[in-house]
Amino acid sequence: MADVAYIPGEAGRERRPAVGYAMVIAAALLFALNGTVSKVVLQSGISSLELTQVRATGAFLGFALVLALTRRESLRLTRRELPYLIVFGIAGVALVQWLYFVSIGRLPIGIALLIEYIAPILIAIWAWSVFKEPIRRRIWLALVLAVVGLAVVVEVWSGLTLDGLGVAAALSAAVAYVVYVLMAEHAVKWRDPASLTAYGFLFAALFWALVQPLWRFPTGRLDDSVSLLGHLERFSLPVWLLMLYVVVAGTMVTFLLVAAALRHISATRVGIVAMLEPVAASAVAFVWLGESFGAAQLLGGAVVLAAILLAQTAR
């Protein structure tokens, strides 16, 4: 029988680990497909910043509409929580999305996600150094393995065979994802996941609107039909339909699943299960786009995945 616990400060709210794990698995699979769909959109001429802006704005409008119709009281906002939500929206939502799109635009999707998913190791180190959570010495072995594995993935002995900016974006996305998970894990103790996610996307959308005003968006491209590339290149879909998937299934549903899962399992366990994403994304990219790893990438990837799992068990 699964353990049943209660979230501190939220009497009567049961923690159901099985539900949390199911949510993260579903989110990982949807994220995996979203990577390839997003890459098709980026190849259509839409920039990573423009796609990020659409994703954030569309997700906010969707969440706000649903909550306004079903649980309007959850949208109440106090002045005290405003600064936290602004930081969460910019550092934890806006940047992780943009850096993710930059990285998959320049790297094979599987490799980009593999680099980004060193985030669980960073979460474990943060928990140990800041929150003084006990972790085992294996965390340091995991850190060494992750560095060695990534060095093999990028083939440093050949002078970095992968796109340097893509690698830097993926590493930065890992840091941004740590911020998102840790801030969300704290915030769901006093705000429900749906409204938390809605406000995260609101401040992300406002941030990108300041960076690039909405009237500069190339709306004329939305009706363009684009090839699905790779093994599906003979098929095409309109850009707006692909973006709709990115906003709804690849963003609203997935972010809500992750935020809701944090009410049932810890951020560390979310990180472990989320390791499914780079594996599933690699499979989707291989079947759809024909992207594949060389021998070095496969070996290095296996080392990095082992390091992530080892780090997670160290908490």
Q: Explain this structure to me?
A:
This protein is mainly alpha-helical and 315 residues long. The chain has one domain (15-132, 164-215, 232-291). It has 12 helices and 4 strands, in the order ββααααααααββαααα. The protein has helices at residues 17-42, 48-70, 82-106, 109-116, 119-129, 138-154, 164-187, 193-211, 239-261, 267-273, 276-289, 295-313; strands at 5-6, 14-15, 225-227, 236-238.
Strand order of the largest sheet: 1-2
Distance between the termini: 23 Å
Instruction: Specify the helix fraction band.
Output: 55-70%
Oligomer: single chain
Total tally of structural domains: 1
N-to-C SSE string, H for helix and E for strand: EEHHHHHHHHEEHHHH
Question: Class by helix and strand content?
Answer: mainly alpha
Average pLDDT confidence is 83
Shape: globular
- How much beta, percentage-wise? under 5%
Sheet with the most strands? 2 strands, antiparallel
Structural Rg: 19 Å
What low-confidence regions span 5 or more consecutive residues with pLDDT below 50? 1-12
Per DSSP E runs of 2 or more residues, the count of β-strands stands at: 4
Tally of DSSP helical segments: 12
